[in-house]
Amino acid sequence: xxxxxxxxxxxxxxxxxLMMGDxxxxxxxxxxxxxxxxxxxxxxxxxxxxxxxxxDRKVAEPLEAAGYKVAVFxxxxxxxxxxxAEALTELARQKPFKAVVGMxxxxxxxxxxxxxxxxxxxxxxxxxxxxxxxxxxxxxxxNVPTTAGTGAEATAVSMLxxxxxxxxxxSPQLVPLATVLDAELTKTLPPKITAATxxxxxxxxxxxxxxxxxxxxxxxxxxxxxxIVAHWLKPAFExxxxxxxxxxMIYGAYLGGLTLNAGVVLGxxxxxxxxxxxxxxxxxxxxxxxxxxxxxxxxxxPERISQAADIVLGKHGxxxxxxxxxxxxxxxxxxxxxxxKEVGISQSDVPAMIAECVERYxxxxxxxxxxxxxxxxxxxxxxTGDVARAVEYYQGG
Length: 397
Description:
Elements: E1 17-20, H1 28-34, E2 40-47, H2 48-52, H3 57-65, E3 68-76, H4 82-92, E4 99-104, H5 106-118, E5 130-131, E6 141-145, E7 157-162, E8 165-170, E9 178-181, H6 191-210, H7 216-238, H8 243-259, H9 266-278, H10 282-296, H11 302-313, H12 320-333, H13 350-360, H14 372-384, H15 387-396
Helix pairs in contact: 4-5, 6-7, 6-8, 6-10, 7-8, 7-11, 9-10, 9-13, 10-12, 10-14, 10-15, 11-12, 13-14, 14-15
């Protein structure tokens, strides 16, 4: 299942330390003490919903009891914009913070990476867009996810919206020093968010498994992640109090983040073109694109896709197109949209979306060449939700 056929040199990133278990969020001070940070100012970056629910206190109160001074930035609502990043940067430079803790969904975690970096580095956020590096090492950073899907707690990427378009800051220096996985923080997630974030994790695993940059390391994470999601996402969706499912999903999402060392493929590019028009949660747009992405790559890597199908279906000898059907049926079972027309995108939007996908979000990691002609059927079929036609077309050519 895990391929060792390639002689390529791979470089993979991961947090230095992982703490996991129910109640682990209350032990962040132990991580800081272990790094000889025994007092001083700590910046806690959290989204408004986390603060509204009081989840931030699960981290802040033990820190304060241990003698740390905690400042909270809670200006994150939805997917972060450049303006939010700039406001956070300004706050991070106001005190000599010793460390940064990011708590929440992917948006908060991504912004905490920027806070850790810009607290000790000069310049504007826009100076660092794309692949970059910082003159000074960022502050020690701990990420505490409260959703199970984005995998941001394991990555070197910070996503934000600049002038209404997706943009990134990417640097190995942004990988958190430690990640804390506390499933108790996820038990109040509504079913819709459980579904969207869970599909985000599955998208990471399946896309990384299809990537031309997949390695034994990322295959290990991807196969385990897809197995976990296949078994536990629906139970977590159906009963949020099922703590075994919650523990499984928060760990699976972390593994999904590690798979991103291989890079994602066409699905994420298409997802960005969708989100740029209707601002869906990232996991929803990724889920919508996923079955069509698998179909697009059926002829390029049939054996690889069959292996993934074996894992999620729990049987040997699966056909590659069975994976497409399984993903589509899972999306339907979770109540997520299955066509672009359901979210207000029509056939008239297709030409601009194809051009944007090719020009703005190219994916050399995708195993099948990405070009406008081949994308035409992708977008035509995703508009109407015609997965069967996509499979038929891409298997034939």
